[in-house]
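Aim 2 progress update. The chain analyzed this quarter is reproduced below.
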Amino acid sequence: MTTIPRNKLNNFIRIGYYIILGDKEFINPCFLVRFVVRKMTPGRRTVLKTIASSAAVLGTAGSSGASDGSQGNSSTSDTATADTSRVSESRTIELTEQNALSKSEFQSYAQQMEKRYGATAAAQITPKSATSDSESDDVSTMGGSRPSDTPHLDFIKAWNDEYKVKGGSPTWTVAHTDHALALYRANSTDSSGNHVYFFWHWSQAESNNDYWHPEGKIKLIESGLNSEDQNQEITKISPSNSKSVNGAYVRAGATVGVADVEVGINGEVWVEDGTLGPKTGGIDLGEAGEHYTELDLNNLTGKHTLNATTVLRSPFSHKEDFPPNLTWETRVVGDP
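Predicted structure tokens:
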């Protein structure tokens, strides 16, 4: 049974009493009913708080729930960090055609995220240069020998995930998180015949602030790409160095030369109070490399966004729209 803090019961003691019915529990005053219905599911606990202005409500009540949004070919971990007061949740997804989003699906996803987190956060899901024009839905080049509005990058696929970070005793939701990885490819190959790919990382975390718990805090957000193919090479990352800021933008885009044109994606992300950059021990440029970016925050509440870019070159012989043998990992650390 959930323990309701004494100070939140004081207002009800004079006019009500506590009733337990199976897995449902609520306070039933004579003139004001405020009840909490709790139902446990394997991956989630949903809490509904209702105020009713009737004398007594003892009818059947239930809770609604949805999945945490995990995708196929993924693994999950939910562990405490070295600091025992902190909790961590992570997911690893193998990038496949089956769990990828098409362009229209990705656009719908961005609209959903705008409703959930607001326009500012949702605008970071795609890089700033990844805009449509009258000729193409491709990403445009930035600089180079051709006009700046000439498209040189194609949107290929995107992947997404969502989960909650839970902790405390009894367990409650500390933070809500959503993650996306969008893939773009240069129209031309490099001098060695390799395709050039740009992966745009987006992770969003929002501290939970409900009536029954103190607001959770967010300590760390992480997103990483790992290649297990010796024929693939991670050649550039952004941000390439860690930057500690307090209320400032950090650049997260990258450009490279392809067929005598400077091609890339552009973007920057607002960091309220923390450090954004490569994860220590999480960078391995070159063949079968890896790139992990982390946003280390000073235990903050509210909404926070991570953006980063991974540039990968893969042989022209690959017939797939995107390189094989890639995994994507995200992690969020919270403090109850």
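The chain has two domains: 6-52, 74-335. The chain has three helices and 22 strands. These observations will guide the mutagenesis experiments scheduled for the next reporting period.
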